[in-house]
Amino acid sequence: MSEAAAEQLLEITLRVNGVRRSARVPARRLLSDALRHDLGLTGTHVGCEHGVCGACTVLLDGEPARACLVLAVTAQAHEITTVEGIGSDPANLSPVQQAFAESHALQCGFCTPGFITTISAFLVENPHPTPEEAREAISGNLCRCTGYQNIVKAVVRASEIVAERAEAGR
Amino acid sequence: MKPAPFVHHAPRSVEEAVAALAEVGHDGKVLAGGQSLIPLLSMRLASPGHLVDIAGVAGLDTVEVADRHVRVGAMVRHAGLERHTGAAAALPLLRLALHHVAHPAIRTRGTTVGSIAHADPSGEMPAIAVLTDAVVEAVGPGGAREVAAADFFVGPLETTLAPDELVVAVRFGRFTATTRTGFAESARRSGDYALAGVALAVDADGDQITSARASFVSVTPVPDVLDLGPALAGRSLHDLPLDAVAELVLAHVDPESDIHAPAEYRRMLAAELTRRALTTLAHDTTEGAA
Amino acid sequence: MSTRQVGEKVQRREDPRLLTGNGRYVDDLGRGALQAAFVRSPHAHARITDIDIADAWELDGVEAVYTWEDLEGRVGEPLPVLIPHPAMTHPRTGYCLAKDEVNHVGEAVVMVVARDRYVAEDACGRIRVSYETLPPVVGLENARAAARLVHDDVPGNVSANLRQEVGDVDTAMAAAPNRLTLELEIERSACMPMEGKGVYARWDADDESLRLHSSTQTSTGVRAAVAAKLGMPLAKVEVVTPDVGGGFGVKIVHPWPEEVLVPWAARRLGRDVKWTEDRREHFVSSAHERGQLQEVEVGFDDDGRLLALDVRFWHDNGAYTPYGIIVPIITATQLLGPYKPGAYRVEFWSMYTNTVLVTPYRGAGRPQGCYAMERTMDAIAAHLGLDRTEVRSRNFIQPDEMPYDHGLMFQDGRPLKYDSGDFPASLAKLKELVGWDDFAAYREQAAAEGRRVGLGIGCYVEGTGVGPYEGGHVQVETNGRVNVATGLTTQGQGHQTVLAQIVADELGVRLEDVHVTTGDTRRMAYAVGTFASRGAVMSGNAVALAARVVREKALRIAADALEVSADDLEIADGVISVKGAPGSSIDLKTVAVLSNPLRYAFDTSAQAATQFAGTFDPDKPPVADDDEPGLEGQDFYSPTQATFANGMHAAVVETDPVTAEIRILRYCVVHDCGVMVNPMIVEGQVHGGVAQGVGGALYERMVYDEGGQLLNASFMDFLIPYASEVPHVETDHLETPSPLNPLGLKGAGEAGTIPVSAVIASAIEDAEGFPIRSMPISPPELWALRRTHSPDPAQEGTS
Fold first, then answer.
1. Residue B21 is assigned to a structural domain of this protein
2. What are the pLDDT digits (tens) for B3-49?
3. Which residues span the domain enclosing C364?
4. Most buried one in B56, B149, C443, C714, CB count within 10 A?
């Protein structure tokens, strides 16, 4: 009897970006793989698979978490937000996404989704960060292209865009 | 880098969890926050046949602040404890140290009790456990038992816990209202395991120190407490005999060399961080720690 | 009138897609494809005595297990030596799967193809490879000692030995009033793009064709190599480079074993197959760079002017040499920076070790060369008691000496001849930016506070935009959409934006109408690749030339239609009009219709081009003999030589008097890459380059043990800086146009990285007062170094 044939498969239901999605996965399926390969949400990127780089950061109940350090089966208990949930329409960017475009805060774009989710959650807790606070807030995510300077700028800029949009919507 | 197959157990109660652990024995691992365990699984440095996932076990996610202790349940995340205003007021050292645990996105998932059960001498929270005379609450097939933190850690990544025992909570002891506490560490990058770190608790009668204790991160094989009393007792907070303190620290710590720093550097760093944390603590005008 | 796009800080066209999870990287493609994983050697040096794959086959979901024995035809032959060189007397390359022997930890031995990566890794765990281990050669000292050999048939572990000399070094050195020698060391790092490598092959059995998606820096290179290896007609192989999560050099090497094996397996199995490199694989089976030992002897006069420079260095090329000796050649030549060396001799030995192979990483040998030269400049200044900028300044090549020929051969086989640059102006700007002349006061003030600070400087010249060529194709559709294609690939440089800016200007169309495709052999079959800071220079000029072809044709057709001379026409915002007579005009898209004589109208606008639609000359064919249908054109840019960008950096560091912790307080850059197409993007390249340089100076190194095990093959232990470790970069720019190309461009991609180790070493040396001769440097190392320079470790007692 081969072990793969015997491997336990679980019916799981994930609540992702406000939608309930079902999949049949082995217990060992990482959330990052479940999102990307079972649900086709490829915006969440995998950079190290040991929790250091932050590219796979998603929000669980609004809090940033490494999707590569969570089992899909465990994630059933949470509301999951991926970068697509922050904004999936290139013509309709979220404040953080727009700030990234304005500030040239991305180059290859691979680490970017992890920054977008992390910063979106951070701005809820701290809507008016200083550049120093912005830098600290992104210090758990690796970027190999930008040198971070424009990401720091984008965090501050995003907080302004949130305010501008609130003003415009009034 | 994908985990090997395992059977996932999702107990709903402590009894079920312990029963599952007893059933699978050495082939089982407890999964709490997973922030240390899952990388080991993905690198296949660990391949347990069974994971007992305690995320769904009722009653493990509470923080209770009592007169003598702060009791932290096994599923309380670092971030939850860090945010807990009652715990921070009762034992400020918790928040001070938690801020240094990895990065925020790890703290949202990782559990404080899990990091103690993991017993990594590079972890911040085991050092806090010994300094606060914490009590580890474990449940096994034979019932519940309590272990003093000082007796809990036996070696790097090694504790007195049996494979079929589950840590359900840790009670961190509170200090007196006048105890001053401090924490300092130094890592190569922010959020990395510290090259060295120190936690301090100093009691003073007015300006005069009555007792002082320290525990360390990354520089002792198991977290333990160094009594700084021989150097500090009876001395003024404003005239600290830092050289004598440093000597005690240098004699106490026993770091290993690794690719990031040789032992002698870590030893120096532990002493220097102790000096600096003591100085900061002594100058802190906010009275006591409640 | 439309505004000129070149020179503007245009927001990137690619960003909205990448920001919303709509990027498409290799691993995002091929859902449901079979997945590959590899058994890799755990030994640095060993003979393979047996491979037992039986247990792997028992797993449900395993589709194939391959060893070298299974490889057919040229797939089983050694991988190509990509850049042969006469000095490389002993090139060696590995096999797609190891044959008989392994030469570094991580070398692929067995390939497994399975239902998914989880099962593939399970199967790998069940394969037993028996090895007879051999003593490994690790580190340059051991390679040089040659007590053991990496390859039995390579004496002394030397793959190449190259010496170049200009002038009579021995005579000049003997006559020099001052002489110094320096022994220097620089350690290995690696590109570490956030996305590893990846290959996805789609085999069409009916068509017997292959479409390969690869995270490569050269799609045409991969195409040619794969077609050759698989024995396929070129026309049946297409290589598409989708979004790529960073390259920095490692992805220019090709074909990687997986780039051959994955399509080979796809063809053999008749199934789509994908391989996504994981981080651990990337550490041990991609490539590293930087490791060198250097010996410099310099002779100089009492004013600090160089009279003779004699450099010998040993370059660690790892286990194999697929990329030849490009890196040490660049070190040997670019070491000279902005200076006139007097008589110059450089000799290097490229050495085999039982470690991961070494191929270009951003800077590609320049950081090492710059480090050697700038350490030397600081040593001269210290020796003579002169200001460090003064010594540099006295040795600068002056603007009126351009073009300046060093008399050496550069990495492209062509003369090392600087085209332009104003080094005195750059230095003046840098001194102003960092406040060079005020630093002494700052140091004093800091010292009074018990703080230790230092100021460092580093200058470099970078040969960019090397040939042989790149092409551009520009096509105007009948709806006004402009399609631009170039063959080189993109890994985040913003080519879709900068090339669109150039075409918009050259063609006179709106930026938003221009759509750029890179790295797709279906759209541009001739290309070289993205490396050596060549994207903007090569493809920028190529698409400009192609746009000019199209513009000329459009004006000719419009001149016929409007019955005016083409010389009287101008194009703006996609409308061709008669100069001074705005009423008389024709849309470019209408010209596109007219350019293609039709029998069948596909829409109403196309009716204008059908055979009964207008007047024509019955004696002429619809398409003239010297013409082609369609408003499109292609051209290639092929320069005679590289164009040389330059820059100067300065940093202020603080070192903790007790713990030796090192903090960069300020980092200043003056940068000259000629005309900047998009200053925002140039600035971003500089920031990112500096960050990688800071990693290489203070954090990153590959730590091998004596047995050849890489001890820090993870992001836990290989310390890429986070935002908390990277300083804010202050920048200023010069724009000295290159006279060599139509747009006046020079490359910018690698600039930021090159001098950082030199600058940080200079600053730490300035803070500490003793020489820094080995980089990177960590606080424990600086702490240990202090103790060797101060017999009384009093620092332990003070706080």
1. yes
2. 999 999 999 999 999 999 999 999 999 999 999 999 999 999 999 99
3. 292-466+640-776
4. B149
The predicted pLDDT at position C605 comes to: 83
Q: In this model, does residue C740 exceed pLDDT 60? A: yes
Q: What range does the domain containing B206 cover?
A: 180-283
pLDDT tens-place string over residues C533-591: 999 999 999 999 999 999 999 999 999 999 999 999 999 999 999 998 878 999 999 99
Asked if the C-beta of B191 comes within 8 angstroms of chain A's C-beta atoms, the answer is: yes
Q: Domain boundary at C637, C672, C707, which?
A: C637
Residue B186: predicted pLDDT = 98
Taking the CA of residue C677 and the nearest CA in chain A, the distance in Å comes to 15
- Rounded distance, CA C29 to CA B194, Å? 40
Q: Torsion-angle region of residue C392: left (phi > 0), alpha (psi -120 to 50) or beta?
A: alpha
User: Residue A107 in contact with residue C494, Cβ under 8 Å?
Assistant: yes
Shortest CA distance from A48: residue in chain B? B1
Cross-chain residue pair B262–C797, CB shorter than 8 Å: no
Asked if this assembly's ipTM is beyond 0.85, the reply is: yes
C-alpha distance from B119 to closest chain A C-alpha (Å): 19
Distances from the Cα of A124 to the Cα of A8, A63, A84, A128, C462, angstroms: 39, 10, 18, 9, 45
Q: CA C73 → CA C68, C229, C263, distances in Å?
A: 11, 8, 14
> What CATH number corresponds to the domain at position C232?
3.90.1170.50
CATH number assigned to the domain comprising residue B148: 3.30.465.10
Tell me whether residues B105 and A65 touch, CB distance under 8 A: yes
Euclidean distance between CA atoms B18 and B30, whole angstroms: 10
Structural domain count, chain C? 3
The enclosing domain of C699 has a CATH number of 3.30.365.10
Domains and CATH numbers, chain A: 3-86 (3.10.20.30), 95-168 (1.10.150.120)
Give the minimum alpha-carbon distance from A170 to chain C in angstroms, rounded to a whole number: 26
Mean pLDDT of C58-83: 97
Interchain contact, C688 vs A88, CB within 8 Å: no
> CB C31 to CB A40 under 8 A?
yes
| Same-domain pairing of C360 and C453 | yes
Q: What is the mean pLDDT of residues B231-260?
A: 97
Beta-bridge mates of residue A10: A25
The residue out of C285, C318, C351 marking a domain boundary is C285
Same domain, B107 and B192: no
Give the closest residue to C686 by CA, choosing from C722, C646, C742, C715: C646
Phi-psi region of C178 (alpha: psi -120 to 50; beta: other; left: phi over 0): beta
**A101 vs C12: CB contact, 8 Å cut-off?**
yes
For A144, the closest of C12, C60, C194 (CB atoms) is C194
Distance CA C384, CA C129 (A): 61
B79/A63 Cβ within 8 A: yes
